[in-house]
Write a structure and sequence with these properties.
Layout (H helix, E strand, L loop, with lengths): L3 E7 L5 E6 L2 H14 L5 H10 L4 E8 L6 H12 L24 H11 L6 H9 L15 H10 L14 H11 L10 H19 L3 H12 L5 H8 L3 H8 L7
Antiparallel strand pairs: 1-2, 1-3
Helix pairs in contact: 10-11
């Protein structure tokens, strides 16, 4: 196996996707498979592949890397060099090298990388370029809508004990800092008529939800979830509640008895 930094180049516009791999030949085959199947993680590259066709793309070796531990660090150098995270120049979805295919970093290497990036600040121009590369149609998730199953799965992954903040509380210093940062951010901001109506409807439903949620109802909701294994979306429909509200009840974030 040969470790290397590679590029997938569009011959029509010279845009590139930069990556790293322990086995670059196997990695190239994987890219081809994903692109042909229409499931590549870089939506921008996928769209270009569909637009220009397979014959307009070539696989190039930018640099062979004898030490696997150095792959990410060197990949970052080439990403920066080609500015491949900028939609104007490339197809990478992130400005930060993150491929760890087959690579396990030693403690010394992790400390070296940490030391190299610690305190590093992006220029205002770089920040603007990163922001522009992810706005509107440039965002890889642009136009994508989650299915009900996906929404439910995400809700369950972050409910109750699965939530990384479950059982934790912000200390006083953190709360004061959050309060200070939030003050004045919305000063002068005006809501549209549609936003005001939406907030009004949401508040009305919240009040209605609270008014008919007795202890018996809460216990029954949790029983349906824990004993019968019903989905949160099903329970929400049964009691005419919001899914998020049911998730909080089942996760014991509210009505904790």
């Amino acid at each position: 196996m040969k470790s290397a930094i590679y590029a997938i180049r569009n011959l029509s516009n010279q845009k590139v996707y930069v990556g790293s791999a322990v086995n670059y030949e196997a990695r190239w085959k994987k890219h081809i498979s994903l692109l042909r199947g229409g499931s590549h993680h870089s939506k921008h590259l996928q769209r270009s592949w569909k637009k220009y066709g397979r014959d307009k793309f070539v696989f190039e070796i930018l640099e062979f890397v004898p030490e696997k531990e150095m792959l990410i660090e060197i990949e970052q150098k080439w990403i920066d060099h080609h500015r491949s995270f900028d939609r104007e120049f490339g197809y990478n979805i992130s400005p930060t090298a993150g491929s760890t295919l087959g690579v396990k970093h030693s403690k010394e290497m992790r400390e070296k990388v940490s030391s190299a990036v610690k305190g590093r600040k992006l220029s205002e121009e770089a920040k603007k370029n990163i922001s522009k590369s992810k706005m509107g149609e440039k965002n890889p998730m642009f136009g994508y809508k989650y299915t009900e199953e996906q929404k439910q799965a995400m809700s369950e992954r972050n409910s109750g004990v699965n939530n990384p903040f479950y059982g934790k509380k912000h200390d006083e210093a953190t709360r004061l800092k959050m309060s200070k940062n939030g003050k004045g951010k919305n000063k002068g901001r005006k809501l549209s008529k549609e936003q005001i109506e939406k907030i009004g409807k949401s508040n009305a439903k919240t009040k209605r939800e609270k008014s008919h949620l007795t202890k018996e109802v809460i216990i029954e909701i949790r029983r349906l979830r824990e004993e019968e294994g019903k989905k949160i979306v099903e329970i929400a429909r049964m009691f005419d509640l919001r899914e998020g509200h049911v998730g909080k009840i089942c996760g014991y974030k509210i009505w904790n008895f």
